[in-house]
TrEMBL record:
The keyword Ligase does not apply. InterPro entries: LipA_acyltrans. The keyword Glycoprotein does not apply. Coiled coil: none annotated. It is found in: Cell inner membrane. This is Lipid A biosynthesis lauroyl acyltransferase.
Length: 314
């Protein structure tokens, strides 16, 4: 019997059980983070990295990651793809625990840019954006610790409004949102009304940040790694509406628990015969940029996302 054909009492029970499951998962996750906080940052982060490389391959998501890697890198051997997937699990574990140690990890000082574990490429662009006081859009992908990018912008007094997609687990989402607030500028959940909220910020001459490598069910058909995907048209539509510059930015993990945050010059976006930004062609430009990043550091991207809609086939 399908759930949507079940009696109301069964549906209510299923919903309650689902909430209990979400709460228990969140409790375990929070407990792990609290235990991690009792130890030095690098020791905790390195430990969960090693642990995730063992546990991650035992999950269904690992199967999805390997299937995605096989589609993206048919020329690589099974061992090479397995190594990339394990690197991904290590990166994901680091990302989770780094929430606990953000104050220690982010030690970048614009007055002393060559000290600390954070280095920033494109510092002059941050300064130019602050001086220009015009609307702009920065996009990134799920690479490295992408959460550090809006913190870097804030050090240059660029308090961007960031579009984010909350986790499906509401209790985990609440914890993550609490960790992000205060350090990462304004946050707008990816839900009804988000486009209007972002448009208002651009109209006020402020900046907007968003991830562009997530799975979407509706939108223009494009390609990623030469494979068909559906892309989100929100960024190109906002860029066309406000005719504002669009900047690529990413985080790269470096050896020794260090990071390189990079903001690149504004993209030259394709335009149609009327001189307006071409929405579909721009979606493809964004995909191509993210693909170059992923190809450079494949183990730092989240391969367990169902970007090519193949989960149901596994």
């Amino acid at each position: 019997m399908k759930l949507h054909h079940a009696p109301p009492s069964v549906i209510r029970l299923a919903n309650r059980l689902g909430r209990v499951k979400d709460w228990m998962i969140a409790l375990v996750a929070v407990s792990v983070l609290r235990i991690a906080a009792l130890f030095p940052a690098d020791a905790s982060i390195n430990f969960v990295d090693r642990l995730a490389r063992r546990i991650g391959p035992r999950t269904f998501r690992h199967k999805l990651a390997l299937a995605n890697l096989e589609r993206a890198y048919p020329e690589k051997s099974a061992d090479e793809r397995e190594r990339i997937a394990r690197d991904m699990w290590g990166n994901m574990a680091r990302l989770a625990v780094e929430y606990v140690f953000l104050d220690q990890i982010f030690d970048f000082d614009p007055e002393q840019p060559d000290k600390g574990r954070i280095e920033v490429e494109g510092r002059e662009i941050f300064s130019q954006l602050r001086a220009a006081q015009k609307p702009f859009i920065v996009f990134t992908a799920h690479t490295g610790n992408f959460e550090l990018l809006p913190i870097a912008a804030a050090t240059y007094d660029l308090h961007t409004t960031v579009l984010f997609r909350p986790p499906n687990n509401p209790y985990v989402a609440e914890r993550i949102l609490a960790a992000r607030r205060g350090r990462m500028g304004n946050l707008v959940p990816s839900q009804a009304g988000a486009a209007i909220a972002l448009a208002r910020k651009l109209e006020d001459g402020e900046g907007v940040g968003m991830l562009v490598d997530q799975k979407f069910h509706r939108g223009p058909k494009t390609t990623f790694f030469g494979l068909p995907v559906i892309s989100n048209r929100l960024l190109p539509k906002l860029a066309r509406q406000f005719d504002c510059d669009v900047y690529p930015a990413r985080c790269i993990r470096l050896p020794g628990g260090r990071f390189r945050l990079s903001i690149e010059p504004a993209l030259e976006l394709p335009r149609n015969a009327d001189g307006q930004i071409d929405v579909v062609a721009t979606c493809q430009v964004l995909n191509d940029k993210v693909e170059t990043w992923v190809r450079e550091y494949p183990g730092q991207w989240q391969w367990f996302h169902d970007r090519w809609n193949i989960k149901s086939k596994l």
